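Apologies for my clumsy wording, but could you write out the amino acids of a protein and the tokens describing how it folds?
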Amino acid sequence: MASHTDTAAQPGSHPVDVHSPVAEHAVELATARKDILRIATAGSVDDGKSTLIGRLLYDSKAIFEDQYEAVARASKGSFVDLALLTDGLRAEREQGITIDVAYRYFATPRRTFILADTPGHVQYTRNMVTGASTADLAIVLVDARKGMVEQSRRHAFLASLLRVPHLVVAVNKMDLVDWSEEVFEGIRDEFSAFAAKLAVPDLTVIPISALHGDNVVTHSPNTPWYEGATLIHHLEHVHVASDRNLTDARFPVQYVIRPQSDAFHDYRGYAGTVASGVLRPGDEVQVLPSGLTTTIAGIDGPRGPVEEAFPPMAVTVRLTDDLDVSRGDLICRPENAPTATQDLDALVCWMADEPLRPRQRIAVKHTTRTVRAMVKDLAYRLDVNTLHRDVEATELGLNDIGRVRLRATQPLFVDDYTRNRATGRFILVDEATNATVGAGMLTPAG
């Protein structure tokens, strides 16, 4: 449910056709600026994920010299252990695994990257769900010596479940299999066959050695048979602007701004982050739940008025009419409104030690709206390794994923997660502790 503030005026379009000239112009300008790419990484224990992240940070000059020198001193053996740049927790270093989600930032002249370093171990499924929920691209590491393992399939399934648009399989430690083209092609073909069963729209497989840097930034002379892009080149050039939903205008109101000062005596604006679609002054809009319609008088960004706003811009919308609008309301278009419902049918990843059970009372936070709800039914628990549905399950335990039906006390304004990731997801909150205990995706039963 993360939001991002974009301070530049951005182009956009009226709904409905993302292939219209105006929408294409929006995509071109969004691509022309230094885009932000959100990446989630996943891999089995000891696949070299932390080393790869360290390599990306080092080769993009995102670390200081004294940091590198400290890592070099702490390294054992003849190579600098770049994994020490990322594994900051003592428990991680002792066990040699990553157990928490950490966000790393680095940049190249073309793009800025936000990288969610997610854990690979099975008991940290909830951490991967958290890290990948807003990702544009997921990197799944596979050890060339081991090939596809159960956790590789689980990570690919979770990425497809969370509708991450782009998936990269980095076949690591190619140096330990003598740079075998046959080994690489075997893993590539097996992973491609598995991905064909899932909703993976874009799959790229790259042979690398994170330790030595082969095919990470520059092409390796050890893989003359590989003619594809290096990892960093692919990350810089993968096209993500068209992944944004420019069709369904959704603006959840986060805060009502009324300065009531001499300079802005009559100012009244509604602040929030554009979840999807495009908004422009003069557009006719509808406010939910009231259903009243009006037009947009103006849109203000952090640096002043903007002509158009689209995701993920943080803006303030001013309306022509003085309507009763508050936090949790949603601004959309009258002819293209989300579904207003109190019944939620969703896949839920449970993140608490105490199991989720039918008849349980819980709070649902969807965009900026929070309502109370009750668990009506648990349809099945999903085995993410085999995709088997256990219809006999009576509860969801820690890290379990299952189809859950909820009944809310007030309507929520939702879309299908496959169409709109921003308005198709929610989190579950324990009312007693205010702790986040689950994350849900609204998808059709099937």
